[in-house]
Design a protein that fits this description.
There is one protein chain. This protein has a five-stranded antiparallel sheet, with no helix packed on it. Strands 3-4-5 form a three-stranded parallel sheet. A two-stranded parallel ribbon has the order 1-2. The protein starts with a strand and ends in an 8-residue tail after the last helix. The relative contact order is 0.09. With 197 residues, the chain is α/β, with parallel strands linked by helices. 25% of the residues lie in helices and 25% in strands. It folds into two domains: 2-96, NAD(P)-binding Rossmann-like Domain (Rossmann fold); 110-189, Regulator of K+ conductance, C-terminal domain (Alpha-Beta Plaits, 2-Layer Sandwich), CATH 3.30.70.
Length: 197
């Protein structure tokens, strides 16, 4: 493992157990990357405090040195979505943190766990309401638009079988197309077998 940082004092935060290489310099400088052993790297994490620097680091390591596993921390969620579409894995830490905080203080808000870069498919978390207890999980699903990926019951997660019977308080993680999300929420709020309108 190697760490590149402009500030040599930053290396003290690594602690005495760190046995990797430390290189003082800028993370997108090719000479510093080579000094850090980029040719032997299996992955690169660009986690400076600047979005532009992180993107340059990600592009240089991928395009110049051929590193496939590259992730960049991006503070601006709009830019993160753009770079994600360009094939650069991003972590939009501000958006992620904000969403997690809001989910804890506004628990009734409809939770979206993940959205693909094209924003056409998402993974959402939903609590199974009382009216769905005793119904088959397959009744929640619709071909090509809604699929339950994970069910958590009493804190234990499982990959569900379609014939699994739902219980009140189950938590389901649902893969859903953007066009079907509103319909999913409407159906879950209604009694099974009704349109909810």
């Amino acid at each position: 493992m190697a760490v590149i940082d402009r500030n040599p004092d930053a290396f003290r935060r690594l602690g005495p157990a760190f046995t990797g290489t430390t290189v003082q310099g800028i993370g997108f400088d090719r000479d510093r990357l080579e000094e850090a052993g980029i040719e032997r790297a299996g992955a690169v994490a660009a986690v400076t405090s600047g979005d532009n620097s992180n993107i340059v680091i990600a592009r240089v390591t991928r395009e110049t040195f051929g590193i496939e596993r590259v992730v960049a921390r991006i503070y601006d969620p709009r830019r993160a979505a753009i770079y994600q579409r360009l094939g650069i894995a991003t972590v939009a830490s501000v958006a992620w943190t904000t969403e997690r905080v809001l989910r804890r203080i506004l628990p009734d808000e409809a939770a979206v766990e993940w959205v693909d870069p094209s924003a056409r498919v998402m993974l959402v978390e939903r609590s199974v309401p009382a009216q769905w207890a005793g119904h088959a999980l397959s009744e929640l699903e619709t071909a090509g638009a809604v699929r339950v990926s994970v069910l958590t019951r009493m804190g234990v997660g499982q990959v569900p079988r379609p014939e699994l019977v739902l219980q009140e308080g189950d938590i389901v993680y649902v893969s859903v197309s953007d066009s079907a999300l509103a319909d999913l929420d409407t159906r879950m709020a209604a009694r099974p077998g009704t349109s909810g309108h």
